[in-house]
Amino acid sequence: MKELLRTTDPTIIAFASALLQGEGIDCFEMDVNMSVLEGGIGIFPRRLMVRDDMIERAERVMRDNEIPLGRP
Question: Which of 16, 20, 40, 48 has a CA-to-CA distance to 2 between 20 and 30 Å?
Answer without folding.
Answer: 40
